[in-house]
Each structure stands twice: as structure tokens, then as C-alpha cells.
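subagent[fold] <- orchestrator: predict structure for attached chain, return C-alpha cells only, no commentary.
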Amino acid sequence: MMGFLRKINWGVTLVWGLLFVAMSSSFAFADEKLPPEKAYLNDVYKNMMDVNNLHYDMAINAETPMGEVKVAIDGEVQEKPLSYKQDINICYRDVKNTENTVMLKQYIEQNQGNLVLYSLSNEKWIKQIVPIGLSLNKELSADEKVSARMNMLQLMKSVKLKKETPSYKYMEITLDSMQISDAIGSAVKLNNVQDKDMLSAAAVGRLGLLAAGDIKYNVKVDKATKMVKEIEIDLTEPIRKGAGLFLDIGNPKDRTKIEDFLTKSTLNMQITYSKYNQVDPIEIPQDVRDNALEFKPAGKATPKKSEKDVAMTSL
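subagent[fold] -> orchestrator:
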């Protein structure tokens, strides 16, 4: 389970980090007159950019032929210094109705060009360093904030108002996967990314996005504050399409089984936001820093010193 989570941490962190930089970079798309729905979201994003910290609750539900997985994440994030803390509850119920639950605690912080993750599982703290080579909490100027908002809006192929109540607006957003892929590629070039893991994650992410096609998600906006309250996304079809591309490339022997598994599986995610600018400062306990054992992925381990190196260091 920890190995699975480490892979998620690496891939998600790298790709979303690149996307964040793409949005905050200066390569703005051509200006255009915004339709009413996008203009409304522009005001929402303007408010969201003034958020320094918040609380979030994330629910991920996956149903597969092997069983059901439910992930609940209770977390907080702050911008300066960039830090997260979250409690993760993973519940797996197999086809025989046998249930297994894993509980994790995690802290994340940015340290120069790295993200440092501390994860508690089975009463042991594990430290993982993810080199990102870029700043996720760069201070944006007023012009850069405007550019970032326009970039985000340009990635949206369409915005539809699905429902409205006295308190909330419910909007459906369709993302242009091709423009997102191009934005990630531009961010890689703009930041002169050299790390092989990051380049690989970006390439895989771009291919997956193009194969997945346009992605839809729903946003619930608080009308009084013009702030995002909730996001819901059905990832079932994008994952099926993205996985289909890699199956075509790899053509594994058990392809039919994998395709059947994907066809019979669903994946949904919901994120609820609260306590905007009301979260206490996040501090990683010193005993966590002191006692965490560093995990190094294959190929990243410190190379053994040769006899010549040992001899030289002994002089």
C-alpha cells in the first residue's frame, strides 16, 4: 500500500506542479471577450488567488470487479511556506465483503526545489523527497495573476450553468486536454526541467491527457463569497481512454483481462473546501523530522563508493 501511495505522490505532484507553473507563467493566450459564465468564473478565480490557506475534504470512490475502494482525506494547506498536512483513511472491501482499512498521516512541505513528504504508516514515519526543480509558491505580480486567470480560463473549452439556488451556482466545466498538454510542455521548457523522473511524468501525463480527451467536472460556487465550495469529477472515462492508449503501445499478454477490468470499473472524486484563510499555521513536528526514514526510489539510491573514492576520502 505504501508503495502504491508513493507512486501516486510522485506522479500527481510532478504533473500538477508543472500545470501550476504553466498557469502562473507569462505565456498568456490571446485576449478574448469572455462569455458570461467564464466572466463569472474569472471573478471567482480572482478571489481564490487571494487565499493563503484552507481546509479540504476529499473523497475518492472506486468500484472494480475485485472490490470497492473508498479514500477519505481530511487536510489543510497553506501557501507561505507551502505546506500540507492530511489524514488519509483507505477502506478496501473485496467481493467477499471482507474489509481492510489503512490509516495514514502525512505532512508535505516545499524545500527549495524539492517537495518533502513525511508519511506515517504502521507507526513508522517515512520521508520522501520529490525533486521538482521549480517554485510552486512563487509570489505573483498583479499582471501575472491576471495572466494566470486568463490561462486557466483558456483551458476551458466550455462552461455551463447547470443549476442555481439562492446560495449556490452549479457549473459544468469542460477542459481542453490538448491545451492542457501544451501548457505542461511549455512549462517544462520554460523552467528548463532536467530531472528524468519529472520529464518522464510530464511526457506520460501529456500522452494520457491527449488519449483521455476533454475532461468534464462540476463546480459548486458560493454566490455570497464567489468562492469555490466543492468540485466533483467522474474520472471513469478519461482513465479508460488514457489506459487504452498505453495498452495499444504495450499490448500486454493479459490485455483482454485489463480491458475487462477497466470496462467494469468506475472512479469518482469529490473535494469540498472550507475555512478559507482561517487555518492555523502548519508546522511539522520536530520528532517527525528527526525520526523519519528516507525512502529512495529505485535508481535514486546513493551510489556506493568505489575503493578509489574510499581511499581518496581517507587522505
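orchestrator: received. Logging for downstream: Residues 2-24 form the longest helix (23 residues). The chain has a mean pLDDT of 81.
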